Structure formats: structure tokens, C-alpha cells
Amino acid sequence: MEDQRFVDSRPDVATWKTEVLKEDVVVTGNVWAHLFASTSGTDSDWIVKLIDVYPQHYPDDPKMAGYELMIANDILRGRFRNSFETPEPGIQMNQYLFG
């Protein structure tokens, strides 16, 4: 898996992070995101990623310090937000629910 730090500084990326976890967390089952978004165009690609960020100080394996491991991801082209069989262009600046 490619380290995901390369996307952090992109101007078209929004990022949300939790505080550093004090205990391990197990995530099972399907991961769902409900994304509300708008665009100045009529179509956009929306990408959601769940990433495990390693601590900046990681003595067990120093080369992994700060590594961002992608756990899950999905991509949706906006015109397919309602149906994969019948694509619909978006209306500029309208807000849509994806997911």
C-alpha cells in the first residue's frame, strides 16, 4: 500500500482526524460515509478514504513513523449518485448526498 501522506497538502482535499487513540480499535464490516457536497461544475469524482495514521514516534519500526495506511476507500463519479444505469449531470452549486 502506498503511503497516503502525499494527499495531505492538496488544495482539493478535506481531511478529518481524531485525537491519538489511547487503545487499539477494531473496525469490522462495511465502512459507510454520508458525504454532503456541492461543486461549481456539473460532474465531480468524490473519493472517501479511511486511513490509519501511525504515530510520529514509532520505536517498533522507525521507518513507519507518520505513515498513513489506507484501510478502505471508495470513489463515486457524481453523475452516478442516483443510478449507475441512468447518469444525471449535477446542477452547479446544488448540495447532494453521496453515499
Chain-wise SSE layout:
Elements: E1 35-37, E2 45-53, E3 68-77, E4 96-98
Helix content class:
under 10%
Which regions are unreliable across 5 or more consecutive residues at pLDDT < 50? none
Euclidean distance between termini CA atoms: 25 Å
Shape: elongated
Strand order across the largest sheet: 1-4
Question: How would you spell out the order of helices and strands?
Answer: EEEE
Structural class: mainly beta
* Mean pLDDT reading: 89
Discrete helix count: 0
Number of strands: 4
Strand content bin: 25-35%
Radius of gyration: 17 Å
The biggest beta sheet reads: 2 strands, antiparallel
Structure description:
The protein has 99 residues and is an all-beta fold. Helix content is 0%, strand content 25%. It has strands at residues 35-37, 45-53, 68-77, 96-98. It has a two-stranded antiparallel sheet with strand order 1-4. The two termini are 25 Å apart. The relative contact order is 0.27.
